[in-house]
Amino acid sequence: MSDSTVVGLHHEEQHHPELLHHFAEPQQQRDAASLGMWIFLATEVMFFGGLFCAYLIYRRLYFGDFGAASSSIKAGLGAANTAVLICSSLTVVLAIWGAQIGRRSLMIGSLVLTMLFGLTFLGIKGVEYKEKFDEHHVPGASFSFDHVPIPGHPDQYANPRHAQIFFSLYFIMTGLHALHMIIGLGLFAWLLFMARKGRFTPEYYTPLDVGGLYWHFVDIVWIYLFPLLYLIDRHP
Amino acid sequence: MSEHSKSSPLKTYLAVWGSLLLGTFITYKVAFIDLGRFNAAVALTIATIKALIVALFFMHLRHAHEKLLKLVVISTIFFLFILLVLSMADYGTRTWS
To answer: What separation in angstroms does the CA of B81 have from each of A27, A44, A50, B78, B85?
Structure first.
């Protein structure tokens, strides 16, 4: 270990400026960053997992009522949002690939596209929420769900109390997901800012890697949310 | 991370992207066909395949060599499995005398 009072170059060996001194080599540093993000994603899986567990239990208990409630949200919008997020995951890996091969325009263009897809997702979500608000399907004092037939049993009406449970879960799960999207947009705005400053090179693009992992996780959560919430009982 | 070739990723990424979109389309269309109890199974199976290819290819798990990373990912799935399966088993068997 060198003992130097001079600020700046005091290294015995030359190494990449991004290599922090508690790591032996750049690959180890990259692995540590990736491991750290995956451990965080493990906590996020349990975070959403609890909500999925509650959802599955209530759906099993009140299947017919949940089917009726689910049929009142637009499956087409949900499918469109799924496609939007899938495209955004592609642009994320393209941005990282752009950094890996030193193609700055690909990297920056892909980051911008990712954010545009994310904003589109939130826009469609806003349209859905507005529709639910107008139909009085937001849980609370003005909730109403009267005389809605259960799919497959046109002579039976859904229990409004059970339908309200569906909508509570719908808003909490998609709301928490949307919050994660917003945080992701903030992260990517910062990544875009750093990318434009020329911070990322083929040797160092770890923030892109780590931000990408987060974004793909948010995509995976939606991949499960879509069929569970939107497609319970759609066949006539 | 820098071990795999630089030219093949694009084909893989586009193939994964196409499969994801196709899976979404199939899920949507099949939901409108009456398969009884199997509607949920089909939808969740396709969703799991989609999640797997995102994790393996987009999140680069396919090329991960570090054993500790694989341990973290597998234990995550394992603990989620315990949460969902044991909770559902609890409620699912409450009517058994």
So the answer is: 32, 14, 11, 5, 6
